[in-house]
Amino acid sequence: MVFFQLVKYYRPMLKTIALFVAITAAAFADGSDKEQAQIWNLEKAYWEYVKTNDLEKYRGLWDENFLGWPFVSPAPVRKDHITDWITANTSKGITLQTYSIEQLATQVTGDLAMDYYRIKATWANSTGAEVRTDRLRITHTWTRTHGTWQIIGGMSSPVNTAGR
Q: Structural domain boundaries of the chain?
């Protein structure tokens, strides 16, 4: 009985709290969508930097403490080797000609974000002749430091025989 009297007495305050919680949740949901879009735009910039061979901007996407495992490496690498796969191609006159990305999932939790996607990347020689096409699964872990998102971890692998 006392409980119902307390609820009746505190009902206006409970309504205010419920409204505050709903507004706060909506605000964080909008921020999350915005942050997911930021991460996705950075992923697209990543591939544009590869295509234009802009190694300085490409390196700027990576956190100093990065550790990841690109499919072209036999073991995980740190930031100082992150452009090795690009220069291995450009030193042979091979550059990224075209690419298409299939975004699969992005999740932002606080100052960390996970991004998963597949890419089809077509490489060509200096005459524009297609040399090879890579089809990869990629995951990147992004960290936000001082308001800037950078890749702190990642892994890539060829897609399976079904292209997935």
A: 2-158
What is the Cα–Cα distance from 126 to 22, expressed in whole angstroms? 57
Reading the block at residue 135, the tokens are: 């089809």
Strand ranges for the chain from DSSP E? 62-69, 77-78, 95-109, 112-124, 130-145, 148-158
CATH level 2 (architecture), domain 2-158: Roll (3.10)
C-alpha 133/C-alpha 97 separation (Å) is 10
Query: What's the confidence (pLDDT) of residue 28?
Result: 44
Give the whole-angstrom CA distance, residue 50 versus residue 110. 28
Rounded-to-integer distance, Cα 149 and Cα 62, Å: 9
Give yes or no for a contact between 64 and 146, defined as CB atoms under 8 angstroms apart: no
What does each C-alpha distance from 118 to 48, 60, 62, 99, 109 come to in angstroms?
16, 22, 20, 10, 22
> How many alpha carbons fall within 13 Å on the CB side of residue 43?
27
Collect the ranges in the chain with pLDDT lower than 50.
Answer: 14, 16-30
Q: What is the pTM of this model?
A: 0.80
Q: How far apart are CA 114 and CA 106, in angstroms?
A: 6
